[in-house]
Each structure stands twice: as C-alpha cells, then as structure tokens.
Amino acid sequence: MPLMPQARPPLWARVALPAVTFALTFVVRAWGVNRHFWLLGDQIRDWSLALGPFTSLPLVGPATHVGGYTIGPAFYWILASIRVVVGPWFENLPHAGGIGQALLQSGADALFVTAVWRRTRSAWLALAGIVLLATAPFDLALAPIVWNPVMGSILAKTATALILLDWHRASLARAAMTAAVAWSAVHAYTGSIFVALSVFAALVVDECVRRDWRAVWRRGLAIVGVVAALQVPYAIHQLSNRFGDQAMGAVTTSLGRVLSGGEQLRLASSAASYAEAVSYIQVNPWRGTAPIWILLGCALVVAVRYRHDPALLAVTLLPQLAAIAGYALWLGDLQPYYYLSLMPSAVLTILLGATALVPARSSNVVGIALLIGALAIVPARLRLATTMFRMPEYRILVSASRGIVSRKQPMRSIETAFELPPTSDPEFIFRILGGRIDRMAPWRAVISPDGRVDYSLSQ
User: Fold this and answer.
1) C-beta atoms surrounding 296 within 10 Å
2) What is the pLDDT of residues 63-99, one digit of tens each?
C-alpha cells in the first residue's frame, strides 16, 4: 500500500538510483579488503573448496559450530561461481571471494532500494533504509568476508525484495524462482529459515485472502517442488552415507527436549536476544533500549496500517515473530549473526511505522528527515566497522608469499615472526600463488612483521 500516490518516476531515475546504490555500497564494503581480508579457518576451508573443480564440491553446506552442516550446497555453488568469474582478476586469492560476495550484497541492496521505492513511492525512504542497512558496522565489516551467514542474508534480502516488488505475482514460474532464492538462503545459513518461511507465506497469502484455493494449491505445490528439487543433493549425500550423519542434529535434539517437556520454552530469553541483536547490529556504536521500543511501537503501527496488505506484513513482521518463536525452542547460545537476515525486515518496519502516522502530503518530508538522520550517523558507523573482523597481516602474507614463490623452489615450511589467529595458515597464500610445500625440502621461510622474509636451511 503506497504512502502517497505519485507519478511513475522517469526511466533515468529508476536506473540511476539502484546503480548509484550498487556502486557506493560496493566501494564502502570492498575498500581495502586486499589488505585486511579476514583469513581464518572457515575462509580457508571454503575458499579451498571453491578453488577445486565444481564436481568436487560437497553436496551439503558448511559445517556449523554446533555440529552438523547446513542442508544444501547453494553456498558452495555460489562461491565456486565467484571464483570462476571474479577469482582470475585477483590471482584467485581469498579476497577475490570477499569482493565477489560484496558485489552480490550490493546487487541485493540495489534490488532492495528499488523494491522499497516502488512499494512506498518514496525514494527518500528507500535511501534511508539502505543507508541504515549497508553502513551497520557489524554487517559492513562482515560483508567482504567469505562466510556463509553473510551469503544467507544476501539471498534472504533478495527474496524479500522480490516480494516487495510483487515480482512473484506475474506468474507461477516467478513464484517458484522466488521460492528457490529463499530456500537457497537456508542452504547457505540455517538461520535464514525464518525469512524463507515468511517468503513462502507471502507467495500464497493473497490467494488465501481471496479464497482462491486452486491458486493456493498451485503455488503451494510449486514451493514444495522447488524445495524438493533443491534438496536432491542432500538426499544423495545421505544415501551415499547410508543416512549415517545428521545435518542439524543439535537443532532436532533441542526441539525434542523442549517439545517433550524436558526443557521450558525460552520465549522471554529469545525476545531479549533478538532485541540485543538489533541493538548490536543496527544501533552500534550507540547502545540503549530506546531503539527496541521504537521497533516495537512501529511494528504495532505497521500491523494496523498495513493490515490489508498481508504480503507486506509477511516480509516485515512475520520473519521477526517467527525468529523469536523459533529461537525460543533453541537451548544453545544466541549470537548476533544469527539475526543478520532479519535486519531488512526490522529496518523496513521502522521506516513504514515512522511514516504511517503522518499525513500523506508529509511523507516525503519524513523520508527526507530519516535519510538525513541516517547519513548523519554514517561516519561513526564507518569508524567502528574498521575495528571489526580485519586481519592487517593479510597484506604482509600476500606480499611475502609472492616473494617466496619468485624463488621457484619448494619450501619445507612457511612461518611468521608475528602472531596470527589460531585457525589461520601462513602457507595458504603461498600454495594458491603456485608455490609448493615439501616437508622434505631443505629451506624454510620466516615472514617478519615488516614483510621481509628470512630463509634458513632446516636441520
């Protein structure tokens, strides 16, 4: 439901706004990633797989920190595609994966800003939303890192934008494609399930309201068919392992204990964790409870104001409510990154709520005010982002590894005279650049903090 009817924007504006959004958000995300890429164990594992042939990719997703793995290979398929398209421009080094991921994130932003603009008829509101999302320090710092929760949030944002654009309404095929994007987000990161299920609801809710049960069945079967098709790799994996491992064993165990009455439903704890996550992701570097109460108040306003637009409610309020209810069944800890895919819904809820109570003729004034406010906090957010998830030693490793490779001889080992994160590997870059590690070779290399390399004969 538009906030204020307006004439259709000219073509140049409809092209320029998403194009500028894409360019600026990409530059902010990828700036300097070749110098400070966060090269930890997860990134080494996943980029190593992407460097191999497509046929050697796993049929499931990355391992999770609670055991098991995600239920499909979409993350690895996308990462391997990034390696093929972007990798050669950057010597197939790991930061190429970060640049490719940032490109996808900015592409999702361009689609999202277009969708919000079209839905609200306010370019100012759309820009305010994307500024708040793209410059959130936690999200911004993670954006150029090869990491599956980030990919899950990218796909979830894309599926949400497609719903806001009403793209799914044109045909059954488009509805199926939207469902595929949403379920691929779950492949990438299980925490995206709440957005995916909400997108599925949005795909059928209009037909349910109209009581067109035949259309509901068609769309429902299309969704089921898409999910079943995307789960074929997982089924093959399970068959090859004779169903000997569980993808989400910790999740099913937690659900079983709560549903059987062995543990209590943790609804209050889940709601508090969501509030903390919104504050940590969207409000930093400031803290406080006011934004959470603002979000709650805006949610109530949106629920009333847009009660006749169930598809919009399905991608704004429903994912947040589903996450609070879903994580209430989880007995483990709750980390802020679990909620990355929910931030577009949260920000959109605040924007819609803030403009719903003003007269239509004043909605643009409110949108401009929100955009100015969002831009005013950008410098502080950017400064905080530069302190998070960065590894300045990466530049030294790349430069030194090039020098070692130029000697054209195998190394017994490559070590550093400075401390690296425990899961990092100083030999990884060397191998990608064509160097060979031979544990019987006579030479070992030690990289100094200034990038100088000292060579010595092994005893």
Assistant:
1) 14
2) 887 778 899 999 999 999 999 999 999 999 999 999 9
User: Given this model, what pLDDT does residue 330 score?
Assistant: 86
The H or E element that residue 415 is part of is: strand 413-416
Q: How far apart (Å, rounded) are the C-alpha atoms in residues 262 and 43?
A: 37
User: Where are any strands of DSSP class E within 276-412?
Assistant: none
Quick one: which of 440, 354, 454, 382 has its CA closest to 31?
382
Is there a contact between 54 and 83 (Cβ–Cβ < 8 Å)? no
Residues 6+ apart with CB under 8 A from 177: none
Q: Phi and psi dihedrals of 389, rounded to 5?
A: 50, 50
Residue with tokens 């898409």: 226
pLDDT tens for 118-155 read 999 999 999 999 999 999 999 999 999 999 999 999 99
194: enclosing H helix or E strand: helix 193-210
User: Is 248 exposed, middle or buried (CB count within 10 Å of its CB: 0-12, 13-18, 19+)?
Assistant: middle
Q: In what order do the strands lie in the sheet with 413-416?
A: 413-416, 443-447, 453-457
Return the SS3 of 437: strand
- Measured CA to CA, the distance from residue 107 to residue 100 in angstroms comes to 11
Sequence letter at residue 28 = V
Three-class SS of 330-353: CCCCCCHHHHHHHHHHHHHHHHHH
Q: For residues 329 and 319, what is the distance between their CA atoms, to the nearest angstrom?
A: 16
Single out the residue of 452, 445, 420, 449 nearest to residue 430, CA to CA: 445
Residue 104 structure tokens: 């996808």
| Both tokens assigned to 234 | 């997982």
d(CA 144, CA 142): 6
pTM score, whole prediction: 0.94
Return the sign of the alpha-carbon dihedral for residues 150, 98, 131, 164.
negative
> Do the Cβ atoms of 78 and 88 come closer than 8 Å?
no
Q: Which amino acid is at 354?
A: A
Q: Max alpha carbon distance in the chain (Å)?
A: 81
Q: Which residue has the tokens 């490793």?
A: 397
CA distance 320 to 345: 7
* Nearest alpha-carbon partner for 120 in 389, 372, 347: 347
